[in-house]
Design a protein that fits this description.
mainly alpha, 2 helices, about 60% helix, mitochondrion, transport, transmembrane, proton transmembrane transporter activity
Length: about 55
């Protein structure tokens, strides 16, 4: 079984790191939370918090 050179391992690491970052960015920006959808409609509910110290 041939061994990989250190430069080959480094390029493989860069490739997998790039794919991981790209995958995480796509998942993060494709999700739209519900509070933003309600903010566009102007239906944000405000909760009055009564603090008892």
């Amino acid at each position: 079984m041939p061994q990989m050179s250190p430069l080959m391992w480094f390029s493989l690491f860069i490739l997998f790191s790039f794919v991981l970052i790209l995958f995480n960015q796509m998942n993060f920006f494709s999700f739209k939370p519900l509070i933003i959808k309600s903010a566009e409609k102007g239906e944000i509910e405000k909760k009055n918090l009564i603090w008892k110290w």
